[in-house]
Amino acid sequence: MDILEKIIAHKLAEVENRKALFPEKLLEQSVYFEGKTVSLKKYLLREDKSGIIAEFKRKSPSKGVINSHAKVERTTIGYMQAGASALSVLTDSEFFGGKNEDLSEARKYNFCPVLRKDFIIDEYQIIEAKSIGADAILLIAAALTPEKLIALAAFAKSLGLEVLMEVHNKEELENNLSEHLDIVGVNNRNLKTFETTIETSKELATSIPDDFVKISESGISDPASIADLRGYGYNGFLIGGTFMKTARPERTAQEFIDKLNRI
Q1: Which residues are known to be catalytic?
Q2: Nearest-angstrom CA–CA distance, 106 and 89
Q3: Pairing of strands 52-56, 183-187
Q4: Whole-prediction pTM value?
Q5: Which domain holds residue 171?
């Protein structure tokens, strides 16, 4: 069983447990549920922003504990002050050390779009995403059948959420494109070896239709890589570990974006 299969197996049980603890009717009473969402797609296309989706995460399956001391409020406010276009918040607890409250806290202190980063396999999690203040959700092609991905994307759109679909290769991309997606993200991490290379994003660039905003995810540690990827039509760049592995992620983001602006 590879790591993704292990995560999905755990997530199936977790979702059933959460449904019993927090029924949908309860989630729908959240102050965020009827609120208007902020467009991640539009923010990524804004010329006054960096295109960076700055991520808050405490650990990962490949790296273990990354940063157990960072505070959501200070880090996310700092990310936005640095010039990030949006925030990504990990809400998976078992494998990434996150929680739903992290996203709600980020929402409380920031006006920008907030992406819920999790392993979404059920409509319940999409209702949950809206209830905690998310503006967009992630759907991972490798974790879903094409039919399930399209159904979940359509449901998310019905709630006013934008959808980022993540792919790792051309087959996943071609099998899952639909009108219910807003953004296509290429994950540069090989799920089997955990190695990352931005060449993956470059190889898939021309296969992504222009109807979708293109973003590159994972393994971006150098501002020059962003300048390079922009030449391939990418408008968004999801960066987590590069910032979070340092003592003050928001300061690292500021230095990174300052360098990017000078290129």
Answers
A1: 55, 57, 117, 166, 187, 217-218
A2: 8
A3: unpaired
A4: 0.97
A5: 3-32+41-262
